[in-house]
Amino acid sequence: MRKGFSLIESIIALAILMIIAIGILPLFSSAILNNTRGSDSTQASNFAKSTAERLIAERLDVPTDLTIPGGSTLVQTDEWYSPGAFTTAGETSLGDEVWNPGPPPAASTFATINYWTRHTRITQYSLKDITNNNALVTPLDGSDLNAKLVQIEVEVDSSKQGGILGGGQRFTVRTIRGF
After folding, report:
1. 79-86: which pairs have CB atoms within 8 A and are 24 or more residues apart?
2. How far is CA 130 from CA 1, 133, 147, in A?
3. Residue 143 DSSP SS3
4. For residue 111, what is the DSSP state?
5. Closest of 25, 34, 44, 20 to residue 159, by C-alpha
6. 8 A C-beta contact, residue 109 and residue 86
7. Which of 25, 47, 86, 109 is at a distance of 20 to 30 A from 142, taking alpha carbons?
8. What are the residues whose beta carbons fall under 8 Å from the beta carbon of 140, sequence distance 6 or more?
9. Over residues 94-110, mean pLDDT
């Protein structure tokens, strides 16, 4: 009598292993998708937070990016960034996070490249707006001397289209600074 597995036993063992493997495969694809989304979300939040933190640290007694010109209630800055893409000055950014002013170039230029846009909005308010149900509703003109609060809003968007690894991310940071 020989010891070992028969052909039928081997086929049954292989079938059981295949059933287990088929059950585990979706976990791997789900993990890849979640890691990609998490990376995009982290990158978007870092881009927004770094700009908000830079603006919060600026001095208010000299003209800065927080200065709203007279006759206006809002200052908005639009920028774009793409790792490894050419900047408006002609050099390659190579992931050095070089943000370029204005809107990104034509969509055909970035057909296969993921790029980011960042919109920074600065508005100023009076302290009495806080007592108005905690809602900042009446932005003040840049020449108004009653302004004591500056709202900084930074919105970052990814151009990544939906697909097997998910769509892009949008992240908004809004903070208020008194002066």
Report:
1. 79/117, 79/118, 79/119, 79/120, 80/104, 80/115, 80/116, 80/117, 80/118, 81/47, 81/115, 81/116, 81/118, 82/110, 82/113, 82/114, 82/115, 82/116, 83/114, 84/113, 85/110, 85/113, 85/115
2. 91, 7, 12
3. coil
4. S
5. 44
6. no
7. 47
8. 73, 124, 125, 126, 146, 147
9. 68
159-170 confidence digits (pLDDT tens): 776 555 556 678
- Of 82, 165, 162, nearest to 116 by C-alpha is 82
Chain position carrying tokens 């500056």: 150
Instruction: Please tell me which residue, 139 or 94, carries the higher pLDDT value.
Output: 139
Q: Per-domain residue ranges for the chain?
A: 10-178
Q: How far is CA 179 from CA 45, 59, 129, in A?
A: 26, 10, 15
Both tokens of 46, joined, read 């870092």
Residue type, 146: N
What percent of the chain is predicted at pLDDT more than 70?
Answer: 77
Which neighbouring-strand residues pair with 158? 116
Instruction: Give the residue among 169, 154, 153 at the shortest CA–CA distance from 44.
Output: 169
